[in-house]
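User: Good morning. I'm curious how cytidine-5'-monophosphate would be positioned relative to this chain. Could you predict the structure with it bound?
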Amino acid sequence: MSVAGKRILLIISGGIAAYKSLDLIRRLRERGAAVRPVMTAGAQQFVTPLAVGALAADRVYTDVFSREDEQDVGHIRLARECDLVIVAPATADLMAKMANGLADDLASTILLATDRPVLVAPAMNPKMWAHPATRRNVETLRADHIRFIGPNSGEMAESGEAGAGRMAEPLEIVARAETLLDDQPKPLAGRKAIVTSGPTHEPIDPVRYIANRSSGRQGHAIAAALAKLGADVALVTGPVTIPDPEGVTVVRVERAEEMLNAVLAELPADIAVMVAAVADWRVASEASEKVKKQADGVPPALQLAENPDILKTIGHHALRPKLVIGFAAETQNVEENGRAKLQRKGADFIVANDVSPATGIMGGPRNSVRIISAGGTEQWPELAKEEVAERLAALIAERTTEPAARKPR
Ligand code: C5P
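Assistant: Good morning! Here's the predicted structure, ligand included:
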């Protein structure tokens, strides 16, 4: 997978994140891609065409009515003479134009005229991203096969507000571009997948929490494997120390309730793979100050409350993905417990494994799983977690593409 030798048309629209697009140009070029930049009028308020052109080593196209530009390449050629169109940052306004087929400047005209894959990296205030109008536009664009990367969660550059709205980092965009330009077969192209991964942290007080030994390795590997097959993957992860997988949108959460909300916000989807080791319980009332030792030496009693079951919620949801897969980490009666979960949680498959400490599976690099479904049980040999992920992604692709999407002979 590489962008070397590929021609990328980079559309920069007007947001503060435009400064990151300068770095994006560098990253793409140092990997051997040719970058042709287009800037909206808004973008030019944030970064100068001079800086963009210098980094791209190309001229910058800004005006649909420029005689010079039209004589040079013309907007239709601009739209077609590339392997990939990247829109970074994409403002709410430009996305609204795209969703409605408006073409009132060079950027929107190119986006309407192009027949190339389009990757959009939104950047906006979290309230604008969450607005029903933007949600509708994103759905429309997804249905039009527009790919998204981000936005990520975090603090906004201009307002300091927190939430989803930050543009994906340049290297994340490069990784997604590499995946999109990869010529491998993409049986999951156009399918949306939600993957949960890692542990959850359930706070006791501002400094302490309840957690578990999950590393996130298996869930992250599954997210990467699905992305490799072309799926548009949202990875909702608890706190982990491993790197983000390439080519997926990462949503970071801490507690089970946040994880559930993040997963629900990603619906509708075609595929859900719930790999996270979600804490079954949280502390009923989190202390707002650090809990102190008592003079009499009596330890505090922790009152627990049950957490929402994310897999079960998704398995019985009105917008249930076509394929719902759960994991069952067991220390005994693996088959029996796994099969019971299939029913109870409304899953199509349960990937069951024995996580007794002696197996070293929890947090380790390898896994030994069996796939439990209504049709029976299949035991897989012990494999690296990446291999388990690849086999599972292949199984998902097989299931997702049959029978409706299978071409009639
Ligand atoms: O019931 P148990 O925790 O063993 O079920 C494991 C499966 O359910 C995993 O797929 C896990 O991600 C999911 N799960 C969940 N929410 C919970 C507990 C488990 O999604 N609160």
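Residues 404-409 have pLDDT under 50 and may be disordered. DSSP finds 14 helices and 21 strands in the chain.
Let me know if you'd like a different ligand tried.
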